[in-house]
UniProtKB/TrEMBL annotation:
Every Alanine racemase N-terminal domain range: 8-159
Matching PROSITE patterns: ALANINE_RACEMASE
The protein, known as: Alanine racemase
The organism's taxonomic lineage, starting at the top: Bacteria, Bacillati, Actinomycetota, Actinomycetes, Propionibacteriales
A UniProt-annotated Pfam family: Ala_racemase_N
Amino acid sequence: MTFELVVDAPRWRAHLAQVAQTTPGLVPVVKGNGYGLGRDVLASEATTLGCDTIAVGTYDEVPSALADFAGDVMVLSPWRPFLPGTDVDDSRVIHTLGRVEDVAALAALRPDARIVLEGETSMSRHGLDRHQLAAAVAALGGLRLEGFAIHLPMAGANLAEAESWAAALETSQVETDRLFVSHLVPHELATLRERRPQLQIRPRIGTSLWLGDLGALDVRATVLDVHHLSRGERVGYRQRPVPRDGYLLIIAGGTSHGIGLEAPRAAAGVLARGKTVAKGGLEAAGLSLSPFTVAGRQRWFIEPPHMQASMVLLPASVPPPAVGEQVKAAVRFTTAAFDRVVLEG
Ligand SMILES: *Cc1c(COP(=O)(O)O)cnc(C)c1O
């Protein structure tokens, strides 16, 4: 009962199952903070969904993924000779290779490793450009080619770019008919499958799978203390005078939980409205809107969030919550760290 995520498990799982059923070849992405839910939770759901492969972000995430999941573990971050953990020797690991010299280096180090070659898309993050494909193939040696991978931007002409890579793949010497894709939306996936029926398309999906039904996810922060405040009273680390009478709420949830001074994007609408209402008021007094909702509205921080709690101002006209009550909080799930994740139901 501190800063927690309560998951309506039946509803969340119904969404996961719906995505899995309508996305053949799905490779769930299980990385980072596990989209707020934890990578162990996600790995176990991927097992329930019957997926044969999950994708992790980095080599540091490989050991726990191998322990939590019985199938294959693809590493999205490209293999590099200098990164710790890249020498993992497990036939369930699928490495991503995006530089010709890395193909040669891994082929020398672990000749029978399983790999995908990655193409450099308009993301310009990692990958081989088209002119390097022949050299990469020539350097493969005994490496086991599991497919070709492309990571597309979130905006733009993704279908056209995916199609042009599919075409390049067919005319290249890259001997695979499996294409791992990132960030194609369902109708783009459907069109690509229709136009390239000979390709096996494997979509790597995180956000729209795990966070695709936000209504199933409830963030609850416990009110730890409530103080009555008079205008001008000085509070907090910074001892700034409060701009008006009201209540000071000490709420569980601070920087260590991923609470920042900027309310997350999901709350932008509320933020904009709050700012208009408060023009010349609390914002002018240097306050920021907090992600905590009390009595139906987002409330203002008295000062920047502390490490594990936040100080939030409630106007005198609003009856304050009782100590021990929980309030809702808007979070950016990919940066949130909850004290507890509770799967209910
Ligand atoms: C993180 C990542 C994904 C998953 O992205 P979402 O937006 O969470 O679906 C897919 N592919 C690559 C290469 C990634 O790094």
